[in-house]
Automatic annotation (TrEMBL):
PANTHER family the record matches: ADENINE NUCLEOTIDE ALPHA HYDROLASES-LIKE SUPERFAMILY PROTEIN, USPA DOMAIN-CONTAINING PROTEIN
Chain ranges of the UspA domain: 24-167
Pfam families with a match to the protein in the record: Usp (PF00582)
Organism superkingdom: Eukaryota
Name of the gene: USP1
Gene3D superfamilies: HUPs (3.40.50.620)
InterPro entries assigned to the protein according to its UniProt record, in alphabetical order: Rossmann-like_a/b/a_fold (IPR014729), Universal_stress_UspA (IPR006015), UspA (IPR006016)
SUPFAM superfamilies: Adenine nucleotide alpha hydrolases-like
Organism: Hordeum vulgare subsp. vulgare
Protein name, per record: Ubiquitin specific peptidase 1
CDD domains referenced in this protein's UniProt entry, alphabetically: USP_At3g01520-like (cd23659)
Amino acid sequence: MAESKIAAPAAAEAEDGSRKKTVVLVAVDDSDHSYRALEWAVRHVATTGAAAELVVVHAKPPASSVVSFGSPAAAGDLVRVVDADLRKRAEDVVDRARRLCVANSVHALIEVIEGEPRHVLCSAVDKHHADLLAVGSHGYGAIKRAFLGSVSDYCAHHAHCSVMIVKQPKSKN
């Protein structure tokens, strides 16, 4: 079976008549699904050369959204511990993303932004004037999506750019 190639969005004309870079924004978290999306984006940017810019975004949840019980004093201590863990996890995610980019000779702007992933990504699309947002798909069924929500579904409907949902290939059994 032949591999299909996806053409890069055409670089728009800047006001001065020069070509502007295509901005590809990719969401990463600590899942293999998001790194599959990053691998796709790195290949995409590498094949388009200097005409593309890669922005990698990790949405770090605020500790207060994870901790919501106990007395105020106990909650304060717990929030500090949880926040330290979330910062460490964000550092690990960013380090893995950076290594993948470096291994493929792709320069990327990497950001960690605190907040709900779906809102962080749509805001980052606007901030960076992204032409394409790449997100991984966890492959949830309708019931899990209804309870857990779907970042990719939300972004597909609310991001002000095209959205590439990178899915895991089905195994051939």
